[in-house]
Amino acid sequence: MRPPRLALVVAALTALVLTSAAVHALTAGARTAGPRWSAAERETLRTLSLASLGPLPKDPSNRVADDPRAAALGHRLFFDARLSGDGRVSCATCHVPAREFQDGVALAEGMGTTARRTMPVAGTAHSPWLFWDGRADSQWAQALGPLESAVEHGGSRTQYAHAVAAHYRADYEAVFGPLPALDGLPEKAGPVADTAWRAAWARIPPARQQDVSRVYANIGKAIAAYERTIGFAPTRFDRWVDAELAGRPQTAESALTDDEVAGARLFIGRASCVNCHNGPRFTDDHFHNTGVPRPSVALPEDSGRATGVRQALASEFACTGRHSDAGPDDCAELRFATTEGEELVRAYKTPSLRGVAGRAPYMHAGQVGTLAAVVAHYDRAPAAPAGHSELKPLRLTARERAQLEAFLRTLSAPVAAPPGFLRQP
Question: Whole-angstrom Cα distance, residue 115 to residue 299?
Fold first, then answer.
């Protein structure tokens, strides 16, 4: 038997009222959880919102950094496995767009196994230092390092120049001008670990070496122009904090649970996470010894920033180098970098926490497997295997550690990029 029409209307209105009440209860609960935010806490929360992120800083060392033609060329180079020793490794092999431009393994795998965890790419155009130890001072200098590493791309400088001439000549010359003559140059030669390729490089006249190195540097600059376009999308935390500070009601898309709000309060308060993970990218771009244990596998001794800063200063692709487009006054970060001190020993770059929940394992060599274990590490504050850890025990309860983890999981959102830039061209 069909129910009376009036009864259906009443049932529908009752359901609507109950749904509205549930949403109101949810949002009201998020707004009223815990004590009110102080003025100082509100200001700290404001600085963490993605809305506080300024425009991309200029890169004076890369004159094509914001050239769309360079970004399009860099997009193709980023995915091109021909830029490797065995034709199987591209930048995207480890920096997987669908995984926040990382690979989900403890030690990156290229032509061999590296000694470090793959770092994500989003937002790195804002950072003055690249790599875990900051051994590069620009995105383009960073992009060049793996290309000549024997365990990453495993290729050589003349090989890359020949590849550009064979496959990208028109696009390259539209951005950088004419390619130099490459006739007579070895297929594989460069200042790399391979002794035969190194010897072949030494036999090339210095002027022609410079021609090849300029092409090599421009490959890095094109890849950097592409990477500059990879940014962050707003997270649930951003929507929550923006509404909270504006006094707007939270919605189902922005509301945080009581535990997530409590985790935010710990993050900017007693747990002191915000001391290093600050600003809208959740990083201070500095280097810290946080007592991270040595990897369980045998690796060469790693002194972190203590070695990295010297490599940055000595790099031929530094801001002050001959391949940089920067002027004499454009390289303050490099010129005034701290180069000595025990605080540099086993100090590693503070990673951004945006998207952190999807980037296990953690630390510079993937020593910690889960986000919960990361929080436990910072709570416990173990002694550093070398140098001195900056951490002090937090003495959090199990509930508080879970709340911190819950908050960190609100920082997830897909990376943002121009249409088509997250897939192979």
Answer: 7
